[in-house]
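Why this split exists: single-chain examples teach little about how molecules sit against one another. For that reason, every record in the complexes split bundles all components of an assembly together and asks for one structure covering all of them. Below is a record exactly as it appears in the raw files.
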Amino acid sequence: MTEPLSPSAFNALFLQARTHNGWLDRPVDDALLHRTWDLARMGPTSANCSPMRVVFVKSPEAKARLLPALMEGNRAKTMAAPVTAIFGNDSRFYDMLPRLFPHTDARAWFSGPEKAEIAATTAFRNGTLQAAYFMLAARALGLDCGPMSGYDNVRVDREFFPGGQVKSNFLCNIGYGDQSALFPRSPRLEFQEACVIA
Amino acid sequence: MTEPLSPSAFNALFLQARTHNGWLDRPVDDALLHRTWDLARMGPTSANCSPMRVVFVKSPEAKARLLPALMEGNRAKTMAAPVTAIFGNDSRFYDMLPRLFPHTDARAWFSGPEKAEIAATTAFRNGTLQAAYFMLAARALGLDCGPMSGYDNVRVDREFFPGGQVKSNFLCNIGYGDQSALFPRSPRLEFQEACVIA
């Protein structure tokens, strides 16, 4: 039986964590990106299909390639962030299933033209779950996140996922957020506005 | 600056947490579902759009309505689970934006026939992020999860989201898992198989 986590963990993951727009001048070690991956990859996906692929944009050269694909309002903060993750989904994720889901050969559930729609939906749903796991794993490790979904997808995909097999999902700045640059928090829906117990 | 969480938190959220197929005979209080919601709703969504809607299937009557929509292999475990969440996405999420995103009237970004595709993608992406936040919030509160995406969507939507505005995304059993009913853990991708630092 697992005990609930501490109040400070609830704060770090959800209650005090914020989407950051300003970044402290403090680098993010590659080892910390590896640790974040090693946590996030354990989260559940359908048939363990694990479709998420990530490019961590860190060098000035890679940042310069990303810049023209960003909306004007996202440029300065993204250039200032120590790392910008491009979360993508591998449309051929099912090629890995013999290793990831060894109980049976599940490739036939997703491959072939008549399965294209279910494969695309599965990649999008499960890659997005993994991106959420990644952001919460980053917060668990003391990092802050700044996700963004407004950008030129075609340009980012051409630049960072050439070949067309992986499609970008959204972007996420990663680093140590500047608390002084935060906006006031927006309201959330109450339980009874979004949920029903039947 | 946030400190990293404790090793036991990493275990509860990611490393030792498992997708459960067997459930202990221990109920889940409604208050705990409310607490889970109050954590999960704080996770980031695009323009704070918060499209997820949830039906918690808990009563024997509601379980009986869900049963015929389940795949054979998911029936017994779902009937045994204290609660089954139906995670859905509200296709008209943007009607709430004047309250959720008070800085500007963002409804025009998503409403109208020429915005139908971006609205559908936004609902799916952000509702799926919220479902991941919900599962990790549940784990943070000591609960276990058993997500499932194979079921008759049309039937579930007709039964639990009448009117067509909300579309179900996936199902998730919630309770206290029976460790003795677990399968061995499946492998995950290594960092270098899924990630690049550029």
